[in-house]
Design goal:
Blueprint lengths: L2 H9 L6 E7 L3 E8 L2 E9 L5 H13 L8 E8 L5 H12 L3 E3 L9 E2 L9 H14 L3 E6 L2 E8 L3 E9 L1 H10 L21 H28 L4 E6 L2 H5 L7 E2 L3 H14 L3
Parallel strand pairs: 1-4, 4-5, 6-9, 7-10, 10-11
Antiparallel strand pairs: 1-2, 2-3, 7-8, 8-9
Helix pairs in contact: 2-3, 4-8
Length: 274
């Protein structure tokens, strides 16, 4: 246990072990704390380069908002697609919480078979989503994750991760549009337009983004069904999943904390044999 965690331990002893789960993406980092199967708290940060001490201070202050003590953690697990942030997070967790941070890779026991051509090239978040999706819904399954990129991953019968498709995310596309046009205004995707045929510039942009991406998702789902067979349930996750689900023909189920759930399951699977 670190000196910081020991000091916290002297102040307040919490006997119930908890697990810290970290999903480090290109744009955002999502943090969660589980006690058994209950998600006690969750936070979203911008994925920026920080020192281990800065990240440790962030963790300390966030945990205080839900009255969770530094000494109460049994372990931690990290899923990251930004290698430069891995070491600061692992060091920060060890220094401030006093526990080692497990890192998701195909070297762990994931509970699913990865049949990707180059398994180590699969984003850790995609594998984590597959683990959680299969645990909750079984397979075959299509998982649509809305992040910096939009990924559609197909898990075949028997929980076999087969691969999927990757497209630019909503924010990436919007930034490209606004950055390369002189007169189009920046907009917020807070509400859908009243019709597909926009009567002003803002509604026209909203129509293209919301209905266009719903069409992209539906078209790729149909192609996956044509190639792999119909019957795979479609679920969504990620920041904009609820916006697109409202206009998609096939993606009607949204699981906002799917990645955190998968991290918890992988941690349990790889520590239960110790």
């Amino acid at each position: 246990m670190s000196d910081i965690a020991k000091d916290e331990n002297a102040k307040s002893k919490d006997p119930t072990p908890r697990v810290l789960v970290l999903d480090v993406g290109n744009t955002n980092t999502v943090i969660g704390v589980y006690k058994d199967d209950k998600l006690l708290g969750h936070w979203r940060l911008i994925s920026e380069r920080h020192t281990a001490d800065e990240l440790g201070i962030y963790l300390t202050n966030l945990l205080k908002t839900v009255d969770i003590h530094l000494n109460s953690f049994d372990g931690a697990i990290l899923s990251s697609v930004v290698p430069s942030l891995d070491i600061p997070w692992r060091d920060g967790v060890k220094r401030y919480l006093g526990v080692e941070c497990m890192t998701v890779s195909t070297d762990l026991d994931l509970g699913i078979e990865v049949l990707y051509g180059a398994p180590k090239e699969v984003g850790a978040d995609r594998l984590v989503n597959a683990v959680a999706g299969v645990a909750r819904y079984g397979s075959p399954l299509i998982i649509v994750d809305f992040g910096t990129a939009i990924t559609l991953d197909y898990v075949g019968p028997g929980g076999k991760y087969m691969g999927g498709a990757i497209a630019p995310g909503l924010e990436v596309s919007m930034e490209a549009l606004f950055g390369r046009t002189a007169k189009l205004p920046r907009i917020a995707l807070d509400a859908p337009p009243p019709s597909v045929v926009g009567k002003n510039t803002v509604d026209s942009i909203k129509s293209g983004i919301l209905f266009g991406y719903a069409g992209l998702v539906d078209a790729l789902v149909e192609r996956i069904w044509d190639e792999c067979g119909e019957g795979a349930k479609v679920i969504g996750t990620g920041g904009h999943a609820h916006l697109i689900a409202a206009h998609s023909k096939y993606m009607k189920t949204v699981e906002p904390w799917l990645t955190l759930e998968g991290l918890k399951l992988i941690y349990k699977r790889n520590t239960s044999r110790r």
